[in-house]
Design goal:
alpha+beta, Methane Monooxygenase Hydroxylase, Chain G, domain 1, eight-stranded mixed β-sheet, FAD-dep_OxRdtase_2_FAD-bd, oxidoreductase, Fum_R/Succ_DH_flav-like_C_sf
Length: about 525
């Protein structure tokens, strides 16, 4: 392994998806020197890059905006905040228009009006254009350079990050005036398309410096997929009829509570689907909008519109869930000085409440929160002194207290056994959650002593394993503290909604995790332990 590479910058962006890209653009436009480090290749890694997605793009018309905000309020348990919804709608509208002009994105044109259709993007082209935009404005991009730990000064402020450059086989240490965590969510290495880099690394690093999280109980998103597939496009199953193993139609499986019906059925038998509710026009639109969705069927010789195919549920965790780092001001600053959060690394409760934002809301949040975090980080970096010593905050997976004999594969396998089965994480009941959490706590203690790696790649995998475990522990603690059913977090042992629990559940800590609540009427900023 080569000697550690040292560098400095005004703003360090960790991540390479939409949130990271928009953060880098706005930090650069605010006059900051910007360095971006991505775990993969900026422009092709992450959940957005391989897929098409809708975007919560709504013209600034009062009736249209009101309808857009009302659409998911009840589903989200009335935890969303209209102030943040308005901000995201405004910023998304601006950014999508900028993407068309400065980003040179080729939006399709409505033949009837001659206007561009800016309500969605094709991920591969979107991210290709974003990378080119970053390069044009002078953002320094380091691909295949996962961050492993944050750097902090004597006062506890975040001052950069250290990591490993895989292709150069060397460690790096980048000091900065501020850091934007846009590293994505955590899908527990379930195999969902584009989520192999989404292992909660940013959450682990943030927890190590004392950052607060919010809504971690709303992190149990599961997507419908053809059995054995990685391609998650659940919206298309709105045109499906679902069948049990004996051919009977599964009533309500296509409704808003349909995945619960499917999950309960999958526990005891196979489930099949057929996209038989899409007419010829819709079928053509679906193929045009998501060609990779149909590639899996074409290769197998299946016509999903006329033939039944077996399905499964694939965990997407916080990638399609809602929980993440809490944000404490309009700049998406966290509770730790110098650290900002954006995209799936941050909570999306502000606009989605406790229900998944799906593709459109999450896409809008990524570009909006990224914009605010980047500009805010640039302002913060200008306001602070950059001298003094800094130290790495990472521990589990990097600096084991024991022999380091536990492997990342062993930890991931053990964590997945508690986090991926939908009879534990989706069909939630305290009698199953408490033992699962106890096993994760035991796993964390063992990892703290014995998980590590000698090489750079081994340390990267060890940190992924530690991150998955850490996210799972915060998720289940938050779930157990919410003794009701609200949004995505449905408790079989607490099936009703409790008006007294109309609050955010906030959390943090690693060796000694803690849980608190925050007023839902105050953007989750006022904490009561």
């Amino acid at each position: 392994m080569s000697e550690t590479w040292h560098a400095s910058t005004d703003v360090l962006v960790i991540g390479g998806g939409p949130a990271a890209s928009w953060a880098a653009i706005h930090a650069r436009e605010a006059g900051a020197e910007v360095t971006l480090v991505d775990k993969g290749y900026c422009g092709t890694s992450g959940a957005t890059a391989p897929s098409g997605t809708g975007v919560w793009y709504v013209a600034p018309e009062a009736e249209a905006r009101a309808s857009a905000k009302a659409a998911r309020e009840a589903l989200g348990g009335h935890l969303a905040d209209h102030y943040w919804m308005d901000r995201v709608l405004d910023q998304t509208y601006t950014n999508m228009n900028r993407l068309a002009v400065e980003g040179r994105y080729p939006f399709p044109v409505d033949l009837a009006t001659g206007e561009q259709l800016r309500t969605g993007v094709q991920g591969p082209e979107y991210m290709r254009r974003m990378r080119a935009w970053l390069q044009r404005i002078g953002v320094r991009i380091h691909d295949h350079s996962p961050a492993l730990e944050l750097l902090v000064d004597d006062a506890g402020a975040v001052r950069g990050a250290a990591g490993h450059q895989r292709q150069l086989d060397r460690d790096y240490r980048i000091t900065a005036g501020a850091v934007v965590l846009a590293s994505g969510g955590c899908a527990f290495l379930s195999g969902a398309l584009g989520t192999n880099v989404d292992t909660g690394d940013g959450a682990l690093m943030a927890a190590e410096v004392g950052a607060r999280f919010s809504g971690m109980e709303f992190s149990n998103a599961y997507a419908i997929v053809p059995k054995g597939s990685t391609i998650t496009k659940t919206a298309y199953y709105g045109y499906a009829t679902f069948f049990g193993e004996d051919g009977r139609v599964l009533e309500d499986a296509g409704s808003t509570r349909g995945r619960s019906v499917i999950a309960r059925t999958l526990v005891r038998e196979k489930v099949f689907a057929q996209l038989d509710r899409a007419d010829a026009t819709v079928q053509a639109q679906m193929r045009l909008g998501q060609p990779n969705f149909f590639l899996q069927f074409d290769r197998r010789g299946i016509d999903p519109f006329t033939q039944r195919f077996e399905i499964d549920l694939l965990a997407e965790g916080t990638v399609r869930g809602t929980g993440g780092l809490d944000v404490v001001d309009d700049d998406c600053a966290t509770t730790v000085p110098g650290l900002f959060a954006a995209g799936d690394a941050a909570t999306r409760e502000r606009i989605c409440g406790g229900f998944t934002g799906g593709g459109s809301h999450n896409a809008a949040w990524a570009m909006s929160s990224g914009s605010w975090a980047g500009a805010g980080a640039a302002r913060y970096a200008r306001s602070v002194s950059r001298g003094g010593e800094v130290a790495g905050a990472g521990r589990v997976g990097l600096r084991p207290s024991g022999s380091g004999s536990l492997t990342a594969t062993e930890v991931v396998t053990a964590a997945q056994q508690e986090l991926i089965p939908f009879e534990k994480n989706y069909l939630r009941h305290g009698d199953r959650l408490r033992p699962a959490l106890a096993r994760l706590d035991e796993l964390w203690s063992a990892a703290a002593q014995e998980l590590g790696g000698a090489t750079g790649d081994e340390r990267v995998r060890a940190r992924q394993a530690a991150a998955i475990t850490a996210v799972g522990r915060l998720m289940y603690r938050s779930t157990l503290s919410r003794t009701e059913t609200r949004g995505m977090s449905k408790r079989a042992d607490h099936p009703g909604t409790d008006p007294a629990q109309h609050h955010h559940v906030v959390s943090g800590g690693l060796d000694a995790p803690w849980i608190g609540t925050a007023d839902a009427r105050n953007s989750g900023l006022a904490v009561a332990s």
